[in-house]
């Protein structure tokens, strides 16, 4: 049984990882994905590790991590001494930021719901509570 895998093209990697080809090139430029080897023809040649790394990046993005945070997570994933503890700390920080954003969105939703319920949906624009709230200088502060 051979442990060597068939080299993958950028298109095959993109399809298997669920990302666009341009995304792969961007991650290479940003240092999130190592520069691939090149075939004699000059085409990029990838291994299975590239697919796994791209899936990691995509999932981390889906959880709200920034590219800089993902770069840190990738580095920490190789750190056998402090990696897991540091990854947990980064995830706790991301969770706290998400919870703050949810609280902010709920506040905005509640305010908008109140405006919608107070608007009759007819009449003169200057009497519309939604338009008044959006125009009111004090409401923006």
From TrEMBL:
Domain HTH merR-type residues, every copy: 7-76
InterPro entries to which the protein is assigned, alphabetical: DNA-bd_dom_put_sf, MerR-type_HTH_dom, MerR_fam
Gene3D superfamilies membership: 1.10.1660.10
Keyword terms: Coiled coil, DNA-binding, Transcription, Transcription regulation
SMART domains: HTH_MERR
Superkingdom field: Bacteria
Keyword Cell cycle among record annotations: no
Coiled coil: 88-115
Protein's UniProt name: Heavy metal-responsive transcriptional regulator
Organism, as annotated: Rhodanobacter hydrolyticus
Lineage: Bacteria, Pseudomonadati, Pseudomonadota, Gammaproteobacteria, Lysobacterales
């Amino acid at each position: 049984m051979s442990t060597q895998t068939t080299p993958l093209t950028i298109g095959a990697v993109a399809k298997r990882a669920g990302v666009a080809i341009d995304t792969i090139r961007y991650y290479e430029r940003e240092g999130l994905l190592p520069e691939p080897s090149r075939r004699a023809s000059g085409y990029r040649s990838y291994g299975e590790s590239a697919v796994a790394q791209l899936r990691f990046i995509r999932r981390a993005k889906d959880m709200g991590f920034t590219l800089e945070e993902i770069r840190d997570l990738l580095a920490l994933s190789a750190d056998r001494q402090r990696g897991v503890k540091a990854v947990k700390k980064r995830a706790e920080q991301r969770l706290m930021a998400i919870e703050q954003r949810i609280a902010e969105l709920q506040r905005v939703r509640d305010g908008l719901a109140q405006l919608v319920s107070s608007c009759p949906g007819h009449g003169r624009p200057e009497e519309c509570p939604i338009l008044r709230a959006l125009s009111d200088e004090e409401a923006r502060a």
